[in-house]
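Instructor's aside before we start: the two examples that follow are unrelated to each other. I chose them only because their records fit on one page, so don't look for a connection. First example below.
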Amino acid sequence: MTHTTTALSVNVNLIAQVRNRRNLGYPSVTRAAEICLQAGAAGITIHPRPDERHIRAHDVTDLAALMQAWPDREFNIEGNPTQNLMDFVRAVRPHQCTFVPDSESQPTSDHGWDLSAPTGHADRLRPLIAEARALGVRVSLFMDADPAAMALAQAIGADRVELYTEPYAVAWGTPRQAEVVAQFAAAARAAQAAGLGINAGHDLSRANLGDFLRGVPGVQEVSIGHALMSDALELGYAATVRAYLGCMAIA
């Protein structure tokens, strides 16, 4: 895939979470994804957790089938590779898988991988990264904005890092914004120097996205779910995707 601007991947977990409140089958996850793709989204992201509190196993295969009709768009599956993620990677071979260090009980992602030697994470991830890449799947590691950690991600075989952006979202609009943006920019430059691609995600929104992209170099993809779907409740899927793409084009 070639994009002249940062690519927008829409996370549809929230649609599944609303659907799961009732045994009625709607709102449709695949229909939401299709409308977002029609509106110009570059890809679809899902994070199927072991308890299926939002994305369920059939959603993964349904979306994989949908994406066959969109060969120029990207299917990204996130999750902890020591839980259920690798089963889905093996089954549907998405374009990208994002390894996230979530515990099964976490309500949402709240930190990146610690790849320092004492944790043992690097040794556990290395063969799983190799397996995914052997299947033709690009691997991104969910990482905090720590410049020193980027070379560690590259050393175990990752193709990209996804910078965990909640600290930026919290700092946005406060006196700490410039300091935090500078930290993310340093991490992005370190990732580029290590030969890694750069993704970003978590609590990015229409309000803060432009400032992030203007301040952080080389971001190839952003994955946005909660804020985008919250906007879609008021604006609709298509108008919301177009609004986000407009923010990104200006940035």
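Example two begins here.
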Amino acid sequence: MRPTERDDAADSVLGKAFALLGSFRAGDSAVSFAEMARRSGVARPTAHRLLHQLATHGAVELSEEGVRLGMRLFEIGQLAARPRGLREAAAPFLSDLFHATGETVHLAVADGDDVIYVHKLDGRLGPELGSRVGGRMPAYCTGVGKVLLAHAEPDRLRTLLEAGLTRRTPRTVIAPGMFMAELERIRQRGFAEEHEESTVGIACVAAPVFDAAGAAVAAVSVAGRTHKIDTFRFAPAVRTAALGISRSLSRGSY
């Protein structure tokens, strides 16, 4: 590394390498060097050099078609303790919820202003949703996100609202007063609803998962087509699953 490059800067070697890895999108098979450089904002010569270095460590694979994510990243990702332990604790309860409803079941955790889906069971007859394991969505417009924000620290909510909420669909709640009032209702009822706020035609109901210290560490949801999802009817089942996972977490660590 050159003396002028800071280790913690976005334009450091490490920062550029992560920018390149983060430029892959869902559905990508192989991406050209030029496209990866464009997406990441890394200069082409630097991108070419770093990608070859990443390939020597198995982080990416290079072929005539372009660049693919390597199996080494998959191996390392499976070792991440928090999502692995959470998935193991949640698995039987999510399976029961899936068989009881037949709709898509999610388990998600907060990451900054977003949620990341750590587990998903696709509904048998439901629509294809944009969510995926490892994918992220803005927290403010999703059921799992809103239920986690309802239990977030006030400073985090203040920062989120000061940055402004973006309307993703005609039904996205973006007015600060209405949004905060909804979070209060979620705290009182113990579950969150979403009706076409993140995706047109999709509704869901979500409930929080608490750890032994009483912190909301994850959320469970059932999602499907708006005309098939009766959020009040599904809410007790979702809350029961979330409570079961919470009890499981309280007996150990993850």
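The first strand starts at residue 60 and ends at 63.
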